[in-house]
Amino acid sequence: TLVLHVLGARPNFPKAAPVVNGLADLGIRQGIVHTGQHYDALMSDVFFADLGLPEPIANLGVGSGSHAKQTAALLVGLEEVVEREKPSLVVVYGDVNSTLAAILVCAKLGVPTAHVEAGLRSFDRTMPEEVNRIVVDSLSELLFATSPEALSYLANEGVPSSKVHLVGNPMIDSLFSALPKLDPAPVQERLGISGEYAVATLHRPANVDDPAAAKELVDAVLGVAEQVPVIVPLHPRGRTRLAEAGLVDGPRMRIIDPLGYIDFLSLVRGAALVVTDSGGVQEETTMLEVPCLTVRMNTERPITVTHGTNRLVTPASLPAAATVALAEGAKTPSGDLPMLWDGKAGPRIARVIAAWLQGENLSPAA
Ligand code: UD1
Ligand code: UDP
């Protein structure tokens, strides 16, 4: 028996660590295949160190390119590894191109797959991730959902309920494990920050690829920086376009390299406000109870709005929303945090996988 995990991009790593640990606790033989979709040390290596992930058994070095070129390289590289390793199950995470390619390769080779973070939907097919989610969920053998709305979305797409397990959110497991290490002081000191500050992360193609959209967004973030200093650990994708749009380093707007996992979450923990277009950051701010303004038209994580600290904003409404959030602090409308976001999703997933490897389908209700 061998379980392979296919990982490639930054958000994959915190989702996978609890599953890898859970399977290790059950003594299941496993290996990580790193596709190399993300390759900068601050987008990849630092996460292996911070999360204690084992060394990959292979790194495909796929790198960047258009969707077609990147996906093609992923398909070729992954087919070779899967044929060589002959895994009993391949586990994939989230909605990135590495996830899509792994699912396609396994479907064609007849290798069963499990999808962690199944059933998220923004209902916006202009998002590359939405396309990936739909394909991945339709081809997976085991689907692990983080929140209840996923169950109805998957049922509506014809996915049999026997395949779907509501297990909670492994990204939140990683956050729970990191909590004792999350100290804002050293990062603040290194960055020379004292007093109240906001953190912003921006990398969605819809926000950063188009010059006009980037300009509108940067003007809005500058509107926030007039109220509170903003620290921007900038994803490589947005660097050039956002700089051209006026996002430049200065005393009220610090543009820095991406931060490692522990440093980033430490900084967020001490922040008065987060502005983001990230998926994972919407969830982490909900758990850390830091107000989060998500600059997007929609979210595939509505539970962070109904049971968390997240609000959707447009660039036009961002500065005023920041004023309100800075005055009010975190407000969770429902009063309680999302169900099963309790730090135990990894072990739940591991138990279902272990049973499945024995030919048993643990009832999704279990
Ligand atoms: C990918 C995911 C996105 C996720 C994001 C997380 C897809 C389709 N998108 O987007 O869902 O939110 O990761 O961070 O899979 N680059 C570097 N160094 C790196 C990696 C990328 O400089 O280590 C630059 C390259 O110029 C590259 C660009 O970033 O062209 C985009 O990288 P890519 O992996 O294609 O997509 P992301 O925008 O990172
Ligand atoms: N993150 C990080 N350093 C940063 C920005 C984000 O460690 O500078 C972490 C963040 O805490 C979360 C993950 O990266 O765990 C989210 O990845 P990203 O925003 O790139 O992708 P998305 O969730 O939008 O797919």
Query: How would you spell out the order of helices and strands?
Result: EHEHEHEHEHEHEHHEHHEHEHEHEHEHH
**Total count of strands:** 13
What is the helix content?
Answer: 40-55%
Q: What is the alpha-carbon Rg in Å?
A: 20 Å
Family: Belongs to the UDP-N-acetylglucosamine 2-epimerase family.
Domain UDP-N-acetylglucosamine 2-epimerase: 28-353
Keywords: Isomerase
Pfam families: Epimerase_2 (PF02350)
Report on the structure:
With 366 residues, the chain is α/β, with parallel strands linked by helices. Helices cover 44% and strands 15% of the residues. The protein is built from 16 helices and 13 strands. A 7-stranded parallel beta sheet has the order 3-2-1-4-5-6-7, sandwiched between helices. Strands 10-9-8-11-12-13 form a 6-stranded parallel beta sheet, sandwiched between helices. α14 (303-306) links the parallel β12 (292-295) and β13 (310-313). The two termini are 24 Å apart. Uridine-diphosphate-N-acetylglucosamine (UD1) binds at residues 9-11, 37-40, 43, 64, 70, 95-97, 128-129, 203, 235-237. Residues 10-11, 14, 201, 233, 258-259, 261, 264-265, 278-281, 284 line the site of uridine-5'-diphosphate.
